[in-house]
Amino acid sequence: MASGADALPKRHFDPSPHRNTHGALPKNHFEQAAQVYDTILGVNKYTRYADWVGALLEKQGVRSGLELGCGTGLYLVPLCERGLIMEGLDISDPMLSRARERRPDLTLHHCDMTRFDLESRFDAVLCLNSTLALVGSHELMVATIQCAARHLNPSGPGVLILDLPNHMVEIPAENGRSSTERFVNDDCEGEQLEVKFESNHLGDLWVTEWTGTVDNWETVLFREQFAELVFDVARVEQEFERCGFLVEALLGSRDGEPFNEEHSWRRLYVLRQQA
Fold first, then answer.
1. What does pTM read for this prediction?
2. How far is C-alpha 15 from the geometric centre of its chain's CA atoms?
3. Which residues have C-beta within 8 Å of that of residue 130, sequence separation ≥ 6?
4. CA 216 to CA 1: how far, in whole Å?
5. How confident is the model at residue 1 (pLDDT cuts 50, 70, 90)?
6. One-character DSSP codes across 167-199
7. CB 90 within 8 A of CB 112
8. What percent of the chain has pLDDT over 70?
9. pLDDT reported for residue 186
10. CA Rg, the chain, in Å?
11. Among residues 200, 198, 196, which one has the least CA distance to residue 172?
């Protein structure tokens, strides 16, 4: 196994692959790995997270919701199965195609979450799984929060849930690390899928690369690279107030653990729009 891994081309991390001369970021669309995305993240694990989110929404009186960056439906599908009226939005057509395979009756929107305009309004808007940090700049994070606020039903509970990384904990723990995990996936015809994960802190970016292979590292299926903005927490929280949101809770995990600045890997905000 070691010799097969060594046979892959060496990957050198420097700013040039991640920002072009115009300052552009990777698309962060997960298009190459869409077919195996659910296997890598873990459907059962995310169903458990979705159950927690669903219970929270029901407690807040939410009946309808929109998930931004819904991807393959890891949250969206189980939330619909709970009886919530959910719609999803994503910029990646391959990810949305996987969501439709999982549940053909989903209402999905193929558009950019930083500048969308839908006819419907919702009791809640969700932006989970670090998606907000993937838009690439504080300005685009602000634009997304503003779009979310405009799509809340003024007569409803007005809930916004944002699941963000706590980079202050994650980056020191993971910077420069490389690990490999093995998965069995039907889309690989029963072959064992091996994925190498590498993470590096580059200026204002937290860059992760996934390399997926089969045949004992002989065949490379995909290489996905995505970059989270290492965002200014105070700047983002100020935007909550400007958009009329009150922070009802700040949690430290995707299943509701209390937030601890020094130990929590997540910053999960539960916000409510003020009347």
1. 0.88
2. 22
3. 163, 164, 165, 228
4. 7
5. very low
6. HHHHHHHHTT-EEEEEEE-GGGTTPEEEEEEEE
7. no
8. 87
9. 66
10. 19
11. 200
